[in-house]
Structure formats: structure tokens, C-alpha cells
């Protein structure tokens, strides 16, 4: 799952989209692409296997005009990394272009149905099925793009963050999400979409975290609107981002990992700030204090996490068992979610994730939730999916971690533990 960027407003979209893709590069990817509705009202798609630099080479001497566009970095799940499989994907008529992060699990069933209706496929991705499917719904139901997306997504099984742009409607971009991250940005007469806030902070500090099964419509005339899949308008909660641009730049270091290693004295202080009362010999974690009874009565703690967060959990197991004498089990979230784990009502589940978007950890949280158990999150990215899905939790407050190898996040997680 990689990156999505979208822009509509009064500026040229292309430079904003490319810069946005570069801000998302830390997530890793194999291809990149962009779709723009040009000043001549053409829907231009440029895409390439490789890096954003390869995409930039491809767009040299091409029409990159337009004040509305979407851009994507792909991490292939269906079909090899090549130009044809890179996003955006055109619909059959080339009236629509779509980008997608995630996996469409029922794509084969939908594909068969579309092939029978005469649709031809230019790629081997699950994503192309989605754009044809939306067009098919749009044409057969004679509805506009927003309604077509809403109806189409009701039939889709899987995880997605998508953005769709339409040749004949350059004033609107439609986006939606389920289990893949998506954030909207509200500027002055300009609106943004992205997988996380890093492509947006430069332009505005007002963002909307999109919830599962919500459709976001950004348009120059009507701003940012949110609907559910049944077309009921939702009130978007606009949040202020507490992040500065300097946190997303290397600040003189040769790479982010080194910068983040050196940031640790400060990030650990931020993590502990206001949480340790030395005089009273007391730790003040509101998320724990508000649920003190649950913690005191817990018979067992299950920690679910992946990767580095799982290693932080192992240290947490030692600390909690030693200090609290409560048995702790550390589970790999990707295993936990696919088996039938025993979860008792007097257990506590703790989910640890730096991004708050780790798909397996989020699925483990949903599984635990379905068993009615109390869930506590330990995350870094404010407003991300796991903190929103858990009953309570604490942020580690170490600022954006761009380096892929975790440094300040694991020390923050262990500090909090
Ligand atoms: N499943 C899609 C593909 O393979 C999207 C992958 C992604 O999240 O980048 O093209």
C-alpha cells in the first residue's frame, strides 16, 4: 500500500502532485503516475515503472497543464511492476482515470462480469477492474460519478483508498476509503487528498481524516464534502495538523534515519512531557487513568503488533509482567487476525503501530472489538485509523518518522510501555 495525492484548486496541479509523491516516497513503491484534466479539457495519464524521476522524464515535453489531478505511487500486489500496471488506470471510454491503494478481493468475479459486458483490460491489476466497474455502474444506472462510486463500492470486497477524476467534470475529484488511509486537506479555494498529511502540510494545516466507507468529494465550487455509501451527507471533522514542514525535511543530515536517531533526546522528552510527576512519584497517562479499573482487573494483556512495534511489544511484556504481575502475550497481528484466538472479557488488548495504519494490526483490533474486549492503542500518527478504532490509548509524540528502519518510534513505544 503506497501513496495517493490529489489536488483541485487555482494552482497548476502537476508540481503539487509530484512534490506530494516525493513526500510519500518513504513508504516505498515500484511505479508512479499522474492524471490531469488539462486546460484543453483532455484527461492525460502519464505513468511509469520506477521512481518519480522516471515519471518526470516521461512527462518532459508533454501537456502537464491543469488545475485538477491525481497521482499515485504503486506497490504491486496484482500484476508485475510495469508501465501498463502502473496507476492511474483509464476506464474503457477513457472518460475516467482512477488511482488505488489496497487490494480488491473480489476482483475476479467483477472482471468476469465486465468481460461478458464487453469490457477490455489493458493491465493485470485488480485496480483496473474498479475503474471499469465504476464506469459500468455509471452508464447502466445513468447516474453521476459520485453516485456511481457509491453504488459500485457497495459491491466491492477488500481494502481501498481511491481517487477518480473525470474528463468532462474537471471541477470535481471523488475519493473513498476502506481499510487504507486517506486524508483530505482544506486550503483557501484549494483542496487536497493524500495517504497521510505529509503532502498537505505545506499548503494548509486543516485536514479531514476520512473514515471507512466514506466518499469524499472535493470541488472548487463546493469545497470538501463527505458522504457515506448510501449518499447520506456526513459532517467532516476538520482537524488542525500539529506538524511543521521542517519535520519532513532532512535538515542537513544525509538521510532521514540519521536525523531521526539524533532527534531521540528531544522525542523522548516530548513522549514523557507532562506524563511524569516526579514529586508525587506518579505516571500520568490519561488513557490509562480513565480506565484504571479495567487495567487493575485485567487477567491478561494481549499485545498485537507487527515488525518493529512487535519488538517493542516484547520489551513491554518484560516490563509489564515484572512491574504489574499481569500475564502478557505478544502476538504477531498478521497471525492473530487469521486464527481464532481465545479472547476473554477480562483481557485487555494493546495494539502498537507507529503509523496507526498497519493493516494487519488494524484487522486484529477489529477482531478483538468483535469479541467486546477493551482495546488500548499505542501509536504515533495522530488521527490515524488505529487510535480511532481503539477504546483508549496514548500517542508517543515523536513526530513523523520517515526513515523505514524505526528509531525514535521504537524508543518512544518502549518509553510509553
Ligand atoms: N492492488 C493494486 C495494484 O497491484 C494497488 C497496489 C497499491 O496499493 O499500490 O496495482
Structural summary, described in words:
With 417 residues, the chain is of the alpha+beta class. 31% of the residues lie in helices and 28% in strands. The protein has 14 helices and 22 strands. The protein has helices spanning 13-24, 52-58, 107-116, 127-141, 145-154, 256-262, 264-272, 286-289, 292-297, 307-324, 333-336, 359-370, 385-389, 408-416, and strands spanning 3-8, 31-37, 43-49, 68-74, 89-90, 96-104, 158-166, 172-178, 183-186, 191-194, 206-209, 214-219, 223-228, 233-234, 238-240, 276-277, 282-283, 300-305, 328-332, 347-353, 374-379, 392-395. The strands form 4 sheets. Strands 3-2-4-1-10-9-11-15 form an 8-stranded antiparallel β-sheet, covered by helices on one side. Strand 5 (89-90) and strand 6 (96-104) form a beta hairpin. It is globular. The two termini are 28 Å apart. Glutamic acid binds at residues 1-2, 74-79, 85, 100-103, 125-127.
Number of strands: 22
The biggest sheet amounts to: 8 strands, antiparallel
Q: List each distinct ligand once.
A: glutamic acid
User: Strand order of the main beta sheet, please?
Assistant: 3-2-4-1-10-9-11-15
Low-confidence stretches: none
- Described by its quaternary structure, the protein is single chain
Strand content: 25-35%
Helical residue percent band = 25-40%
Shape: globular
Number of helices: 14
Between the first and last Cα atoms, what is the distance in angstroms? 28 Å
Radius of gyration: 22 Å
Structural class: alpha+beta
Q: How confident overall, as mean pLDDT?
A: 95
Amino acid at each position: 500500500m503506497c501513496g495517493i495525492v490529489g489536488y483541485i484548486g487555482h494552482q497548476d496541479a502537476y508540481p503539487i502532485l509530484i512534490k506530494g509523491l516525493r513526500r510519500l516516497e518513504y513508504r516505498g513503491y515500484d511505479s508512479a503516475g499522474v492524471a490531469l484534466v488539462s486546460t484543453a479539457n483532455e484527461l492525460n495519464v502519464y505513468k511509469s515503472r520506477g521512481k518519480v524521476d522516471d515519471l518526470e522524464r516521461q512527462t518532459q515535453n508533454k501537456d502537464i497543464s491543469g488545475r485538477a489531478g491525481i497521482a499515485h505511487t504503486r506497490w504491486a500486489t496484482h500484476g508485475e511492476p510495469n508501465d501498463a500496471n502502473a496507476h492511474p488506470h483509464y476506464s474503457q471510454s477513457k472518460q475516467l482515470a482512477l488511482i488505488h491503494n489496497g487490494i480488491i478481493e473480489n476482483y475476479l468475479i467483477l472482471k468476469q462480469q465486465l468481460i461478458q459486458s464487453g469490457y477490455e483490460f489493458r493491465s493485470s491489476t485488480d485496480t483496473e477492474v474498479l475503474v471499469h466497474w465504476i464506469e459500468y455502474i455509471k452508464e447502466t444506472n445513468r447516474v453521476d460519478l459520485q453516485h456511481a462510486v457509491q453504488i459500485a463500492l457497495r459491491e466491492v470486497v477488500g481494502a481501498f483508498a481511491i481517487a477518480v477524476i473525470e474528463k468532462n467534470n474537471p471541477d470535481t475529484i471523488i475519493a473513498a476509503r476502506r481499510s487504507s488511509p486517506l486524508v483530505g486537506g482544506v486550503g483557501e479555494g484549494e483542496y487536497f487528498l493524500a495517504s497521510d498529511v505529509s503532502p498537505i502540510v505545506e499548503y494548509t494545516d486543516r485536514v479531514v481524516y476520512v473514515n471507512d466507507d466514506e466518499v469524499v468529494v472535493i470541488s472548487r465550487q463546493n469545497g470538501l464534502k463527505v458522504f457515506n455509501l448510501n449518499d447520506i451527507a456526513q459532517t467532516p471533522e476538520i482537524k488542525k495538523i500539529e506538524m511543521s514542514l521542517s519535520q519532513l525535511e532532512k535538515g542537513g543530515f544525509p538521510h532521514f534515519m540519521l536525523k531521526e536517531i539524533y532527534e531521540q533526546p528531544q522525542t523522548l522528552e516530548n513522549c514523557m512531557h507532562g506524563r511524569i510527576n516526579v514529586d508525587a512519584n506518579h505516571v500520568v497517562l490519561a488513557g490509562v487513568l480513565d480506565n484504571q479499573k479495567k487495567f487493575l482487573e485485567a487477567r491478561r494483556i494481549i499485545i498485537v503488533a507487527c515488525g518493529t512495534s512487535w519488538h517493542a511489544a516484547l520489551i513491554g511484556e518484560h516490563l509489564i509482567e515484572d512491574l504489574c504481575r499481569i500475564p502478557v502475550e505478544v502476538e504477531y497481528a498478521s497471525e492473530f487476525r487469521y486464527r481464532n484466538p481465545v479472547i476473554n472479557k477480562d483481557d485487555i488488548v494493546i495494539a502498537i503501530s507507529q503509523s496507526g495504519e498497519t493493516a494487519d494490526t488494524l484487522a486484529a483490533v477489529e477482531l478483538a472489538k468483535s469479541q467486546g474486549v477493551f482495546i488500548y492503542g499505542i501509536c504515533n500518527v495522530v488521527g490515524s485509523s488505529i487510535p480511532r478504532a481503539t477504546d483508549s490509548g496514548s500517542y508517543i509524540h515523536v513526530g513523523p518518522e520517515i526513515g523505514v528502519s524505526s528509531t525514535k518510534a521504537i524508543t518512544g513505544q518502549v518509553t510509553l510501555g
